[in-house]
Each structure stands twice: as structure tokens, then as C-alpha cells.
Design brief:
Belongs to the virb1 family. The protein has 246 residues and is mainly alpha-helical. It has eleven helices and two strands; from the N terminus they run H-H-H-H-H-H-E-E-H-H-H-H-H. Strand 1 and strand 2 form a beta hairpin. The longest helix has 20 residues.
């Protein structure tokens, strides 16, 4: 047997041997190549901070789209950017607009029967809905609108001088054409006049009516209040509860 093995050809011997694993390849160069293939935009210097995600030289679709959340129903929700407007108004009502939410206007039953016993979130929903109803008559929901011969600006047609007088964060016409800023300023104004007068409108010239002309029109007030009373945040609990079956 030993003699036969010795006589066997080298080719046969190598064929019978088990295969050896492939040699390990150095990966330093591969890793270095991959790392250096990523580059920042030309205007970003090596010593600068990395660019923000929205300006980085790649994009991703892994992040799920933002959900609208539980936003209250408004009259402007057919307009582009309405979610931002609503969120900005809610944020303002949580901060400098809190006096507006904390009080119960004497005439609120005409506008929102559920308001006196409503939670803070429901009260904020009412005021956002109220501003959207007012925007119908002020600007027809156009954040870029300019009226009064160039005097009034934005969703709720605010005079720049009025904005400055109430110490809003915006005081120019162009700035008031930003929907979110316009509403934040409107909340600041209403949070002063409504607690001062104790009413939303009264006879049309108090509360919100002190600064917004549509409130002085009985037909426009009726249109606004009629729409608001139909919203879930303004209906009393017994009106929204399902009827019991016979």
C-alpha cells in the first residue's frame, strides 16, 4: 500500500487533500476607501460641524411621515399649511394665551355651549376654531392677504402698529404674512381684550370686536357661531353621546 502511494502522481495526492480556507485579505484599504468616499458639500470645511440632516449629501425614506395628530377641526383645513397654523395657535394658547383659556366669557354660550365645563384642551380647540372662522371673513384663509390699502396683513388682517402696541414678536407687514406668527399675535391681542371686557364680542364692539371689524356684523357673528356650535368641542356631552337603543 505504501508503495502504491509513493507511486501515485502528485496530481492525485493534491486532489485527495481537504481544501484549505482562502487566505485572509487585509481590509484596511477597503475600509479606508469606503470611509473616504463620503463627502460633504463644498461649502463645508473639514473643521466645521457636520451638516444637519436636511443638508447632508444623502437622503433617506426610513423616517415615517408626520401624522396630523388630534388637531381640532378648523375652517382653514383645506388650505396648504393649515396644520402648522393650528399647532402654532395651540402653542400660543398654552403660553401667552393662557389667560384666554382660563376665563369663561359671559357670552360664551352663544358661541360654544360646552365651553364652561370643557377641559383646557377643548377650550384651546374652541379658540383655534374661532380664529379659523374669523379668518374666513378677514382674509378668506389667505396668509398672504393685504387689505385696507396696504394697512392690514395676514390671516387675521392685523395692523403692524397694533402688533407692536401689543408687543407681538412680529411688527412688520411682511412678518405678519407668516400664518403662524399672525395667529400667535392674534392670541396675544385676544388674551388682553377678552379678559378685559369679559366677553367674546358682546354687542360686537367689545372683546375680540374691539380690534376685528367682522365681529361688528351680526350676520358674520351668526355665521361664525353657527359653525362653531356644530363642532364636537362645543357640543355638550349629552349632545355627543350616542342615543340608547330601544
Amino acid at each position: 500500500m505504501i508503495a502504491l502511494l509513493l507511486c501515485a502522481s502528485p496530481t492525485m495526492i493534491w486532489a485527495e487533500l481537504p481544501k484549505q480556507p482562502a487566505p485572509v485579505v487585509e481590509v484596511d484599504n477597503v475600509v479606508q476607501t469606503a470611509a473616504t468616499s463620503l463627502s460633504f458639500p463644498d461649502e463645508v470645511e473639514a473643521e466645521d460641524e457636520p451638516p444637519a440632516l436636511e443638508t447632508a449629501p444623502f437622503t433617506t425614506t426610513l423616517r415615517p411621515p408626520a401624522r396630523p395628530g388630534n388637531l381640532p377641526r378648523t375652517r382653514w383645513q383645506h388650505m396648504r399649511g393649515h396644520s402648522l397654523w393650528t399647532r402654532a395657535a395651540i402653542s400660543a394658547l398654552k403660553s401667552h394665551g393662557k389667560p384666554l383659556v382660563d376665563m369663561v366669557p359671559a357670552d360664551v354660550a352663544e358661541w360654544c355651549p360646552a365651553y364652561p365645563t370643557a377641559s383646557d384642551s377643548q377650550r384651546r380647540a374652541f379658540w383655534v376654531g374661532f380664529m379659523s372662522a374669523l379668518a374666513k371673513h378677514e382674509s378668506t384663509y389667505r396668509s398672504w392677504a393685504v387689505g385696507g390699502g396696504g394697512r392690514w396683513y395676514g390671516l387675521l388682517q392685523i395692523l403692524p402698529g397694533t402688533a407692536r402696541g401689543y408687543k407681538c414678536n412680529v411688527g412688520s407687514g411682511d412678518a405678519l404674512k407668516n400664518g403662524a406668527a399672525n395667529l400667535s399675535c392674534a392670541v396675544r391681542i385676544m388674551a388682553t381684550t377678552v379678559p378685559r371686557d369679559g366677553v367674546i364680542a358682546g354687542n360686537g364692539r367689545r372683546g375680540v370686536g374691539a380690534d376685528w371689524g367682522p365681529m361688528r356684523s351680526a350676520s358674520k357673528r351668526a355665521d361664525m357661531s353657527r359653525w362653531l356650535r356644530r363642532q364636537s368641542y362645543c357640543k355638550p356631552l349629552n349632545a355627543t353621546r350616542p342615543r340608547s337603543r330601544p
